[in-house]
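Project standup — Tuesday

K.O.: blocked on the structure for the chain from last sprint. Re-posting the sequence here as requested.
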Amino acid sequence: MASQKMLQELKRLLLDTASGGSRQLTEVEADLVQTNILLGEAIEKLGSSFMELHTAVLAQQKEIELLMAGKGCLDADDIARLKTIQDEITSHVNTAVTGLQFQDMTSQLLERIVRRVIGLRDALGVLSANSFEITPDHTQSVEALEGLLKNTVESMEERLTALENGLWKTVRQTRMESGDIELF
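H.V.: unblocked you, prediction finished:
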């Protein structure tokens, strides 16, 4: 027979691990969701600003082209420099917009982390549920306790394996003109 003190300590360990871990994972999940929301809002504003900048630059370029076409005082070198500047502005704006792809990749990572947190909380729930099977009376044999612990370990391993198999390993970005980017 397992001693009452050992059973009580084991039960307390399982409950404390499950409840403490679950509370912390809930806080992590809330922080990750809030981070994702804030990141999305910031990127949305940044993207909007870049698009407005691009529109203004295009309008400026049209005006310069009109000036270049209508006035004979600009020489070929002046026109070449203006064209180079136009190309650089367009290139910088395109590079900045391409940089926005990382918001999508970051969101994918945050979603994966949230799923991992949920899966870990589920696994910790096994500890909590199985801890109620431990009774402090002397009727529980060592064999029964060993069986319970074995079942708990197997159940946790199943949940952790399912969690691992359910998470994608790569973060992909394929929506913008720059092509595919793969992280991890």
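K.O.: great, moving the ticket to review. The two ends are 51 Å apart (CA to CA). The chain has four helices and two strands.
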